[in-house]
Amino acid sequence: MANRQTVWLSTMMILSLMLIGYYTVGQNIQPVPTTAKDTVTQTDKPDMKKDDVAKKSTDNTNAGKKEEPSAKDNQEQTNAPSDYFASAELQEKKRLSEQIAELQDKIANNKTSAEEAAKAQKQMEELQTLSDKQDAIVEQIKAEGFPDAIVSKEDTGIYKVTVQAQDLNPNQVVKIMSIVKSQLNVPNSNVIVSYHP
């Protein structure tokens, strides 16, 4: 019975995350260069081909009218960054909880040897420690003046750090990398820092 509930709960979590991912807008993450020679740029301007022609024709028809942004538009603009970070954090926590659930099932399985169970227990503790360290990194980044951040670990061992900012200068990137390095004890080559407005 517990296994059915676990499967059902996991399925519902996956479906809800798929919905969140579908409705989340503004997934434009810009990687930040790690060398001082590179520059950070962000382009949110659409191509000015067909859109420009269509805009000119509508400008002529609406010349005397002024459009004011609605409250809904303002809410979408202010919630977009927080929605992105909330969604990304939820996905990372979901990924970690799924891995922990798999390890717990492995430990609870009667067919699992004592050696495999001990290995699974150790992996589960490492995942919990990683989650705690990720939370600590986010708090330290917020203490540096960034409104929000998310830290995720890829299967390749690369840690991706995305901070809420309009842009990042090289000094900020170095500071973020040093925070990650001090918490996780990984080389800078295993850390990718990017920003999301």
From TrEMBL:
A Pfam family that the UniProt record links to this protein: SpoIIIAH
Annotated stretches, region: Disordered: 36-79
Gene3D superfamilies (alphabetical): Stage III sporulation protein AH-like (1.10.287.4300)
Key words, A-Z: Coiled coil, Membrane, Transmembrane, Transmembrane helix
Transmembrane segments: 7-25
Residue ranges of coiled coil: 86-130
Biased composition (Basic and acidic residues): 44-75
Stored InterPro entries: SpoIIIAH, SpoIIIAH_sf
Protein name per its UniProtKB record: SpoIIIAH-like family protein
Species of the source: Collibacillus ludicampi
